[in-house]
Amino acid sequence: MILWIDTETTGLEPGCILEIAAVLTTDELDEVSRFHRLVCADDPVTLLNDSEPIVREMHVANGLAADICNARIGGDRTAEFGAVSMFRSWAEPLVGDTPVPLGGNTPSFDRMFLLASGHRSRAFDFLSHRHVDVSCLNELARRWAPTIYAGRPQAAKAHRAMADVENSIATLAYYRAQGFIGKDKDTE
Ligand SMILES: [Mg+2]
Questions:
Q1: CB 31 within 8 A of CB 16
Q2: What global pTM score does this model have?
C-alpha cells in the first residue's frame, strides 16, 4: 500500500496547515479509502493575511480561502492539531502493522508539517520513513524523456489538496504506463 498525502499551508515558514487530503491505495494504485479535512481558524481573514503573499493569491484563486472562511470550525493551531489527529485516526487502522511509504509530490514537505503540528514523531509510526515521490520522476523525465514529461497529467484544480493527491497518483500511473518503470521479465 501507499499512503498519498497533500497539505495546503500558509507558506513555508512559519507555516500552518490549511487543508489535508490523503488517499490510501494498493500497490497497484487502486484506491482503498480517502480523507479530506479543512483546517479552519476562528479568524480566517487574519490567518490568510498572515500567509505568504504568493500563497494567499493562489488560495484566493483556487477557492480554498473562500472554503476556509465559510467553514468556521476550530482555531488555527488547535484546529491543525485536531485535523492531523483525525488524519491519524483515519489512516492508522487502515494501514495495519506494516509501515507504508508516504506518497505525493515532494511528500517530505507534508511530513514536515505533520510533525510540526504538535504531534510527536511516534504518532506516525504507521508510516515508513520512505517516500514515493513523483516529483523525483518529474525531474528525471524532464531531463531524460521530455516528450513523456510534456504529456504528464495536470491537476484538475492545482494547489487544492485532494486534486493534488489525485494528480500524484495519476502521474505515477502515467509514468508506469509509459514504461518509465519497466516490468520484471518473468511477469510480462
Ligand atoms: Mg498541494
A1: no
A2: 0.86
